[in-house]
Structure prediction request, 259 residues.
Amino acid sequence: MMDVLHNREASGDSGLKKIRSAGRLSAIWQRIDRIYCISLVDRKDRQACARRQFDSVGLSDKVDFHFVHRHPRNSEQGIYESHQACLKMGLDAGARHVLVFEDDVVFGPVDADRLSAGIDFFMQQKDCSLLLLGCLVGKSHPTQSPFVRRVRYRCLTHAYLADAPLARKMVETPWQGLAFDAALRHWPDHHFVLYPSIAFQSNAPTDNTRHLRLDRIRRLFGGMRIIQLANEHYHRYPVIVIAAHVLVVGALMLWIIAG
Prediction:
């Protein structure tokens, strides 16, 4: 009987902590003027998944869904123009900053202190016009904040925060045959990412019909979340990762020679 009561108390404490955490996260997200999520109008499955993800991190009543139809000719152009539409809606509403999600976003652990510090950095640092909540990078460098890294951005646009001047530049740049994440490499002078990342691209099949083969390869290697985490750790600790690989290869060669 005592064990049952103890388990109920523990469960109650855990539930209370989750409620408090969600409430604190909700207050932090409230600092962002406009938040949107892009979704194809016929992808009810993705919309349901995205709503569950938003509920889990205190975003349940703060995200406006932007429903779009499939582009008749080019899926990449459709994605590009969908991002522009979200940013324009934010600008038209007088937003100083706009957070955009894609409907395949999934969240990892979200620490309220880290998230708050990352948003502080974005709002206070003059050269930070873009803060990604997760992406793939080519290089990573420390900043004044232990929770934000300056990176050489490569790709993924499932979760990013842009200030109004950058958003305006993005909206005013017409489609020129480049995918949105390819164009995003050139728009801001510097790219920053929250560290560790909190937003990942899910393992759901892509809606970008031009990259179906690449999508299958990504899922074969465990999905984008695993790829993102591996990419993040490699560029955060490259010497350690390379040294570990050298040791493994060296040990394997010694074992072969000894055998």
In short: The chain is about 50% helix and 20% strand. The mean pLDDT is 85.
